[in-house]
Please model this.
Amino acid sequence: MDIYYPDNGIKELIDYILDHGTRQRVKRGTVLVHERQPSDTLYLIRRGAVKGVCTDNKNHQRIIELMFDGELVGSYISSRLGEPSPFAVVTLEDCLIYSINIKQHNDFFECDVDGQRYVRAFTEHLANNHLKKYLSLVTMTPWQRLEQLQQHIPNIMQRISRRDIAAFIGVSPESLSRHLNAKDDDRE
Model:
């Protein structure tokens, strides 16, 4: 199967989910995707925040991704390959989301051109976003990741817990507090 490009992308996917998906409100702490279980659902966050979590080799939960308003969430590639999700997705605040079952809308997610099955171009976009977020884990310092997060979501400190922010950037909550206090002292 190859990728088919004509006029398809993320905007088309978002519009499709808004038109055909199920709108729902979910409470903080709701698991949308379970780690190591199949998931055929793709979510669009209209309002709220979620975290991508996986279990490391020491059986600790690691936050590998934070996602916010307007972002797509799910284990799309795993679903396409018929494999369980390598991570869980859990809401960090009450959220308004749209969900769509990939298999029930397979005619949108795949298309037939001259007898060949193709996946749409947004597949590459989703995979590239996951890769960029993973690379930030291994190439940026915790404080660079914090700065990037604060630039993306300026009110992040008011939206989600410092414990989750610290876990995402890879430091202890105490180190994060010291860093933030030092920054406040520098401003005075």
User: Anything to note?
Assistant: The radius of gyration is 18 Å. Residues 122-139 form the longest helix (18 residues). Helices lie at 10-20, 76-81, 106-109, 122-139, 142-152, 156-159, 162-169, 173-187. DSSP finds eight helices and eleven strands in the chain.
